[in-house]
Amino acid sequence: MAVPTSRATLISYCKRQLGDGVIALNVSADQESDAIDNALQYYQDYHYDSIQKTYVSHQVTASDITNKYISIDDSITGVINIFPVSASSTTNMFNLRYQIRLNDLFDLMQVSMTNYFLTESQLATIDNVLVGSHPFDFNRHMDRLFIRMDWANDINADEYLIIECYRIIDPETYTQVYNDRWLKRYATALMKKQWGQNLIKYDGMTLPGGLTYNGSTILDAATTELETLESEMSLAYELPLDFLTG
Questions:
Q1: Is the full-model pTM beyond 0.85?
Q2: Average pLDDT in the 1-18 region?
Q3: How far apart are CA 246 and CA 240, in angstroms?
Q4: Which residues, other chains included, contact 232 with Cβ-Cβ below 8 Å and sequence gap of 6+?
Q5: pLDDT, tens digit, for every residue of 42-76?
Q6: Which residues make Cβ contacts (< 8 Å) with residue 158, sequence separation at least 6?
Q7: How many CA atoms, within 13 angstroms, populate the side-chain half-sphere of residue 107?
Q8: Running DSSP on this structure, what letter comes out for residue 200?
């Protein structure tokens, strides 16, 4: 069996599963491509193997400060958290306070850290109550990350933000996506449904030799297969509803 490693080979796989080479498939090349696009979109929206948790660095520009938002790559599906990484920040690993503690690590290992831990916890609580974190809003269809802060004073151009997020795995880079068992079956069912929709208007028409078109049977079978696969996705592969809540 040829393993699909691209859009073209996945289309060929789906067509073979529907009988191509033995019978004629009444599906255009554009409709085949649409079926793959729709299958990938559904797969990327729901399958846990289609996304990856990652961290993206963004260097703030003057335009970001003027716009009061950050432009995000289209492959980002959800934002969990934002970490400042700048010289003025007191909450990141590159600030002076962190480096001092790093150099004192040997001394801290020789004594009890209970007082240090309690003090740091108290300081963190005070910082959270009096300062808190900046709220943010993100919608993947806008490709913009809105951070509710005083852009004029809280951050400067050329400083960095680290964005904790979920990103779609690009199938053109990681071609094993095209060989996903569920995706292959779903793409085949979508192509089969399109085939049935194309033929249904000829239902009952008699062909030479006494054969008749029966597109409704193909359409009904494909619809049932899609419902089964979507139920399987919901039960076996979909992440919990609050998984991307930041």
A1: no
A2: 93
A3: 13
A4: 182
A5: 999 999 999 999 999 999 999 999 999 999 999 99
A6: 59, 60, 61
A7: 6
A8: G
| Main-chain dihedrals φ then ψ at residue 76, nearest 5 degrees | -80, 125
Please count the other Cβ atoms lying within 10 Å of the Cβ belonging to residue 128.
Answer: 10
Q: Helical H runs in 155-214? A: 181-199
What's the residue count for the chain? 246
What sign results for the dihedral spanned by CA atoms 184, 177, 227, 192?
A: negative
Q: What is the pLDDT of residues 188-228, one digit of tens each?
A: 999 999 999 998 887 766 666 666 667 789 999 999 999 99
Please name the amino acid found at residue 49. Answer: D
How far is it, in rounded angstroms, from Cα 54 to Cα 163?
A: 8
- How far apart CA 67 and CA 157 sit, in angstroms, is 13
Residue 51's contacts (CB-CB under 8 Å, 6 or more residues apart) are 44, 77, 166, 167, 168, 169
